[in-house]
Task: inverse folding
């Protein structure tokens, strides 16, 4: 490996701290949601995306785009949640071959219970430990990296 391919100390510190933080946050958030609302972080992502959808039920590709997941991950997650009664498939009016994914009454009740508990925990373990300046920096860094990835083709 050439010298230019290696990470310097600053880069290594930033990159590995980011990776570790990301994994630890996911683990803590998942544990909190399982404890408080009996749903996983993945369940929460799907339920909250559908709850916030302006036009109601979503096609799988719309859900995939919103979540930024691979198609197979969305399909498997949705199938598990349908079996648990949190979601349902509905016939797509504009394309009879397609379906839309919708919240059930139970799914709506679960996400309505989970959201304030989840947001309180996000504030406790993440937002409240950062200064306003750090939050602004984090937002700017995240937006810059996302812009850089925008042109990358993502195929399932």
Result:
């Amino acid at each position: 490996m050439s010298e230019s391919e290696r990470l310097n100390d600053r880069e290594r510190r930033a990159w590995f701290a980011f990776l570790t933080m990301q994994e630890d946050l996911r683990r803590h958030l998942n544990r909190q949601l399982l404890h408080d609302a009996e749903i996983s972080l993945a369940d929460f992502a799907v339920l909250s995306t559908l709850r916030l959808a302006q036009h109601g039920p979503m096609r799988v590709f719309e859900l995939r785009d919103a979540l930024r997941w691979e198609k197979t991950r969305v399909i498997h997650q949705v199938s598990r949640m349908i079996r648990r009664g949190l979601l349902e498939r509905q016939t797509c009016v504009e394309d009879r071959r397609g379906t839309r994914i919708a919240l059930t009454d139970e799914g709506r009740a679960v996400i309505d219970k989970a959201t304030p508990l989840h947001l309180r925990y996000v504030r406790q373990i993440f937002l409240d430990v950062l200064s306003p300046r750090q939050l602004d920096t984090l937002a700017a860094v995240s937006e810059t990296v996302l812009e850089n990835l925008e042109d990358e083709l993502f195929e399932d």
Residues 32 and 121 are 8 Å apart (CA to CA). The beta strands are 87-91, 99-103. The two ends are 30 Å apart (CA to CA). DSSP finds six helices and two strands in the chain.
